[in-house]
Write a structure and sequence with these properties.
The chain has 772 residues and is of the alpha+beta class. Helix content is 49%, strand content 21%. Strands 1, 2, 3, 4, 5, 6 and 7 form a 7-stranded antiparallel sheet that branches. Strands 17-29-28-27-18-25-26 form a 7-stranded mixed sheet, with helices on both faces. The protein has a 6-stranded antiparallel sheet with strand order 9-8-10-16-11-14, with no helix packed on it.
């Protein structure tokens, strides 16, 4: 049976726990292999065996939780792996073939992973129909399965290399035969056999491309070799085929090195794991581990799945996910991630995600999908290839035909020049080097705990002029503590904490958590509350024993016309100390103040100093009052700060920064800052390990909370774009150099092809440097 994917839109998802409940409910349905909810876009993805799939069961499961599902926006998608798609020319052939198929709604070709993701209508076309259509292009398609099948025999996987060796050996035999005085007629037969063997793959792909009215590089080379044979240049024709095929194999090998970076990420997860299920300890393949199982991880072993520690204490090397070099302590209640390495103690882990939905799986998916969001250089390389090959074909024919026909030129001489024009054009260097650079850079950054969502963001990052930071949880630790409690009524400090803690227990804001935590530490009994309501950017309100109370900023109390006269000195003192004053009051009067402080991250000052030294302007955006914002800004060392901002104010602030300075990045947690990140040129989400929303929201995602990774990301983006520019310039320079030489007859077939293939390989190898 084949694995297929179906996507549904769900109404009413309003929290991360809701998404988890839906995933768990749908995962239990027979035939469902994966249920994954994207909370940010209210989307459910189901991977299932279609013949066993019961949509009514999914509907029932969703509705039993109080949600509804819209089937009209569903789509069936399938991912195929395409063997033989190694160059932009082949991807163009596949593109034309897909556009000709009725029932194919949409498709996305990823040259670097040799995959195509197709959205289709099964009432018009089947998966087998699409596989057969791709086979007509000379390439081989197969379904991408959750569990890869064993590889084929080496000789089957490397037939082109075997043909290359045979071609080369025959050329050597023919050359030695000539030296030994064997008749020319006999050596020509050996050269002819070498040509037949060596030209098989290029000619096959060239003529299949011609069937789709596509002129590709392989066709240019094939025409060049056939032309050389007609001119009686058997040795040159054989060398032409061999050198081109050698370059083709070497280019494919170099590109596979970049693909290998993605495979290396996949291999971080162990193939099997020790699991406790129904009281029995068994070893299972990781694909068969279910949510709710208990994975047992011994010292030195890799953690197989995402989960929560329920027993044991150890230190875990999280560098494959977060890029952190120092192992992190893990004990009961702590989250752990697939692909990380357990150091000393034994851990028992309650599985919270299937292996196909872990944080590592999402990282791999992001790296694979990075090709979809292309930089201007990627788009240029693709456009260039579409016009360049036909133009070179026309130029070659023109050089071979026009001078002899109209100007009395020698036919043999000008046909030879035309052939040289064709063969010096036979290189995938420009088309391949750009995507190889992007994949190399994104794989490198993923190993260091930074995800780039595409080449477009690699390019945008190196153009940034301003970095705007949210304060809470970004520049600061995000775990504020209550430092002071001041009362203005008959209530005691403990009663103030109890009342404020009870009301804030319904809020998810970090400051609310600090107040609740302090109340519990003080053993203050939290009262029952009703009519709770959050007021964005201001605070919250709720009823306790029938009376209405407010907890929030001074701005909230001013709007409610509650006098703050007696508290002005305390509010000013706390704000000058960089603390946030949280006020508690009834409808009639102020009852007390809780001062809350959030410490700067250890690396904040150094990270901002580094960004400023690289020419970045650093701005802090916060909802805090002016005095608190000023104190934190001074400690952090930012250039500017904007205070008392509501979420919509942050959006406007980012727009104004773009007008003043140019490209702006917004750094936040990807949840509360999502609107501001959306309007920025580059949204940078922090602390995304284990947070699905942040991975989906950010254009650049930092898997850890390390601010120094931002400078690393910017340096990598500058280096990547510099590398791409080098490859584009070198490739164009070689073309500019070789084509005129070919036109005036100053270079031959073999030297021209050698220089051309060498330049292409140099560009690709240069791109691979980004892996290091």
């Amino acid at each position: 049976m084949t694995d297929q994917e179906k996507v549904f839109k769900i109404k009413g998802i309003d929290c991360a726990n809701c998404a988890l409940n839906i995933e768990m409910a749908v995962s239990k349905i027979p035939g469902v292999k994966l249920a994954q909810v994207s909370f940010a876009i209210s989307e459910l993805k189901v991977i299932t065996n279609i013949s066993q799939f019961d949509f009514r069961a999914v509907t029932s499961a969703i509705e039993s939780l109080g949600y509804s599902i819209k089937d009209e926006e569903s789509a069936i998608t399938v991912t195929l792996k395409i063997e033989g798609m190694d160059c932009a020319d082949e991807s163009e052939i596949i593109e034309k073939k897909m556009k000709s198929l009725a029932g194919v709604k949409d498709f996305d070709i990823n040259l670097m992973t040799q995959q195509i993701k197709i959205s289709y209508d099964p009432s018009f076309i089947s998966v087998q129909d699409m596989i057969k259509a791709i086979a007509e292009t000379g390439m081989r398609a197969s379904l991408v399965r959750a569990k890869e099948e064993k590889g084929r025999a080496w000789w089957k996987e490397n037939r082109q290399m075997l043909f290359l060796f045979a071609c080369g050996a025959l050329i050597v035999i023919a050359f030695l035969s000539e030296l030994l005085g064997i008749p020319r007629q006999d050596t020509k037969l050996v050269y002819a056999l070498a040509i037949l063997i060596g030209i098989y793959y290029p000619a096959k792909m060239g003529f299949l491309a011609l069937k789709t009215l596509t002129l590709n590089i392989r066709l240019l080379m094939t025409v060049g070799a056939i032309g050389a044979i007609f001119l009686g240049l058997w040795e040159e024709a054989a060398l032409l085929v061999f050198i081109y095929s050698l370059g083709d194999v070497l280019e494919a090998y170099a590109v596979d090195k970049a693909r290998g970076a993605i495979k290396a990420l996949m291999e971080l997860v162990p193939k099997e794991a020790l699991v406790r299920r129904n009281g029995n300890e068994i070893i299972l393949p990781t694909e068969e581990i279910s949510i709710g199982d208990v994975a047992i991880v011994r010292p030195g072993e890799k953690i197989p799945v995402d989960g929560k520690v329920i027993a044991g204490t150890s230190f875990v090397d999280q560098s494959p996910i977060t890029g952190e070099s120092i192992p992190v302590e893990k004990r009961t209640g702590f989250d752990v991630f697939a692909g990380t390495i357990n150091q000393k103690g034994s851990l028992e882990i309650n599985v919270t995600k299937r292996v196909s939905d872990t944080t590592l799986a999402r990282i791999i998916h992001s790296v694979e999908e990075a090709q979809a969001k292309k930089s201007s250089y990627q788009r240029f390389a693709e456009r260039f290839g579409k016009y360049y090959t036909p133009a070179m074909f026309a130029l070659g024919i023109g050089v071979a035909v026009i001078p002899p026909l109209f100007f009395g030129g020698d036919w043999q001489s000008y046909i030879y020049r035309g052939l040289v024009v064709l063969v010096v054009s036979c290189s995938c260097g420009l088309a391949l080097s750009v995507p190889v650079s992007v994949v190399s850079a994104t794989a490198n950054s993923a190993r260091n705990g930074v995800l780039f969502k595409g080449g477009a963001y690699l390019e945008a990052a190196q153009e940034l002029r301003v970095i705007a930071f949210d304060k809470t949880g970004t520049l600061t630790i995000g775990r504020p503590v209550v430092t002071d409690v001041v009362t203005y009524d008959t209530l005691s400090e403990k009663e103030i904490l109890a009342l404020a803690g009870g009301i804030e227990s319904r809020s998810e804001h970090p400051i609310a958590e600090a107040i609740v935590r302090k109340a519990k530490e003080s053993e203050a009994p939290l009262p029952g509350i009703g009519d709770f309501k959050a007021m964005a950017g201001l605070g919250v309100k709720a009823r306790v024993d029938g009376s209405l109370y407010f907890v929030g900023s001074s701005r909230l109390f001013q709007e409610k016309s509650i006098s703050l006269a007696q508290a002005q000195n305390d509010i000013s003192r706390f704000e000058n100390e960089g603390k946030t004053a949280v006020l508690l009051g009834s409808e009639q009067r102020l009852l007390g103040i809780l001062a809350v402080a959030d410490k700067l991250r250890v690396e904040t000052r150094e990270a901002i100093k580094t960004l400023k030294s690289s020419g970045m302007k650093v701005v802090m955006l916060t909802g805090d009052n002016e005095r608190t914002a000023k104190a934190i800004a001074s400690l952090a060392g930012v250039d500017e700060y904007l205070s008392q901002l509501l979420p919509e104010d942050k959006v406007e602030a980012v727009r104004k920064l773009k007008e003043r300075f140019g490209k702006v990045a917004m750094v936040g947690d990807g949840i509360n800052d999502a609107p501001a990140m959306a309007v920025s040129d580059v949204g940078i989400a922090m602390g995304a390990a284990g947070t699905d929303i942040a991975i989906e929201t950010g254009d650049i995602v930092l898997m850890s909370d390390d601010l120094s990774k931002i400078d690393y990301a910017l340096r990598l983006s500058r280096r990547t774009i510099g590398n791409i520019r080098q490859n584009v310039i070198v490739s164009l320079a070689i073309i500019t150099f070789l084509v005129p030489l070919a036109l005036i007859g100053w270079i031959g077939l073999v030297p021209g092809l050698i220089l051309n293939e060498a330049s292409g390989l140099i560009a690709i190898v240069n791109a691979l440097r980004l892996l290091r």
